[in-house]
Amino acid sequence: MTQVSRHIHINGIVQGVGFRPFIYNLARTYGVNGWVRNSASGVDIEVTGETNELDVFQADILHSAPPLAQIDSLSTEDIPLKPFKTFKIIPSKDKSTDFIPVSPDVAICGDCQRELFDPQDRRYRYPFINCTNCGPRFTIIKDIPYDRPKTTMAGFEMCPDCLEEYENPGDRRFHAQPVACPVCGPQVWLEVTPGIHHAEKNDAIEQARQLLADGKILAVKGLGGYHLACDAANAEAVARLRERKERPDKPFALMAFDIETIRQYVKVSTATEDLLRSPQAPIVLMQKKTGDNIAENVAPGQANLGFMLPYTPLHLLLLEKEAGYPEVMVMTSGNLAEEPILRENDTAREKLSGIADAFLMHNRPIHRRIDDSVLTTVEDQPYPIRRARGYAPNPIRLEDALPQVLAAGPQMKNTFCLTRDRYAFLSHYIGEMENWETYQDYQRAIRHYESLFRIQPQAIGYDLHPDYLSTKYALKRAEAERLPAYAVQHHHAHLAAGMIEHGIAPGEQTAGLIFDGTGYGADGTVWGGEVLLGNCDNFQRLYHLKPVPLPGGEVTIRTPARMALSTLWAYGLPWKENLSPVNALSAKERSALRPQLEKGINSPLTSSMGRLFDAVAALIGVRERVTYEAQAAIELEALADEDELGYYPWQMDGSQINIKPLLEGILTDLSEGKSQSIISRRFHNTIAELCLELARAIKKEFNSQKLILSGGVWQNQLLLEKTIHLLDNNGFQPLVHRQMPPNDSCVAFGQAMITAYRLMKDKE
Ligand SMILES: [Zn+2]
Ligand SMILES: [Zn+2]
User: Fold this and answer.
1) How far is CA 565 from the centre of its chain?
2) Ligand 1 mean position, distance from CA 221 (Å)
3) Distance 127 CA to ligand 2 centre (A)
4) Do 331 and 371 meet the contact criterion of CB atoms below 8 Å apart?
5) Which of 660, 673, 525 is nearest to 605 (CA)?
6) Closest ligand relative to 165 C-alpha
7) What do you get for the CA distance between the two ends of the chain, in Å?
8) How many angstroms separate the CA atoms of 147 and 151, rounded?
């Protein structure tokens, strides 16, 4: 048989996932010789063997790739015969203009968990155990190609035992860059007085567990930053954490040792269990069971609790099951207010010492901070709420190659997005761009992504809102680098994000029900209850909620009672004495509000659907003032009756949705003493029925059955599932986000798609 040689190039997530040892072992199985190496754009292989051997070798690369690998393309080329004698893994080659995707961080794998609790293992109870299949990635990578010197593990020299594992292609730790052991790797310690080691290694963990059991608040350095932890069953500890963190109501995330424990507190379906156990190990929102012993103040007014499993060995050791120790920990971001999660030991000491009673620290630096991801399931499929650890920086795959652009993203729940070839790098959750720290972190993150993925934007997209920090960044940078800049209307970006995520061609006219909190409208008013028809170039506003005033802007967003009164006023309905929002405001506030509305002083108009939810929640006495975004809507949803089928009427005035009949229906129900739970459910049903009527109108006029459901209001699961059900049953095709959140964290992706499309059109 004649021997031939081939060059194989593979693109995708193939570094840091055990790909080279997999190729090595495969080559040995088929008896082919040659080499494999990482390049800055993927993995290169050269092999010599018989044609049929090489064919099966190649097919097997695609069929049996390691679980964390994601192959985007495999190309081969016949090359002149090379007489290789063996198969080798050779050093990386760096070509600085190429790029490859970088693996997100991966939750501890089953093998490492077994070793962690095996007294015979040399890494027994070592809190940084990891292997090729698990451990830190994105958070420790400074640059590519992914090799140890380019990670924050560079400072830890491997001991002979670790080195042997690292160099042995048959070992599970072959080329696992963060490989470490108690002899050579990072260590933990406990500080009670900041700066002074109170205990080290296992002692530190033992004492930290004791502090949690005693009701203390612990700052724990994890994978993507610091958490604040306390015993979730201890209401007094939770209250202290709330008071010190100045976070009165916003729900806390929880962590428990295993699924069995989680099952005691929430309803776990097959789909949510899969998510909890996935390598991404996100926080998963699940329905609360009644009669649990989680402190009520962990998630006040919520129907759901957010749980995650321990995703690092340190978390497992902290939660190990033992009588007298907490079964479930509160695990909330270690930060102040809306600042970024803290990642450095010094700043954590400085900023968290007023909150935490002690610090469980370690000396493995975190290069890139990242929050925990949050997901729920809708129709048994994952539905993202916050996309961060475990998911970013995985790119969104595109149908077509795009020019390199940057989308600066929105103000709230900010992410940014960079494109290159057939990838859109939608960043991890950055957060609320309201303070200097977040803005600094945002700029650093953009530079990091641009350098990791070798991207030089040719155009910049930004939100129409002139005051957003992201808008200012985009315009400043476009001017400095002389790049074309494209303003993108907020809800148009939502529509485009949904379209491209679902593989709709960028030029195809598509309709969307874009229900959101706040977005700067093309006419300068505040939009948010919009039905748009458009593509990646332009759009038209088909229908929208009839605008009502937002007196004083921010103050009314924080005070749903004001929104309720403003809405009643706009529809000519009286502020009756017995109404909750009337009683919630002082006589002085009310007498200032009325002339403000009548004269239109500092009262921008809004068609926001989020604000309508606020108004209804306040009108029926669920929530008059909020301490976190969407609190009123979340509490309104949580108490909705399960079985009620009724709904209220509404009226279409041309392109405007007139909700006066709806408000009158609610007022009648209130006067007849109907419960909040019945009224809430009727209101949710009404919005779903409204969607159906809008869908029918769109179909009649534009013959379009596809409907993008995007915007923060679609985090409302009751509304979403009811709407999907109604649309499905009536022959429509509702399209919901699956790879990115429906809230403003998807806006950057839509901006990027519109920017790239407009840039290509302008260059034609
Ligand atoms: Zn592992
Ligand atoms: Zn070692």
Assistant:
1) 34
2) 20
3) 13
4) no
5) 525
6) 2
7) 53
8) 7
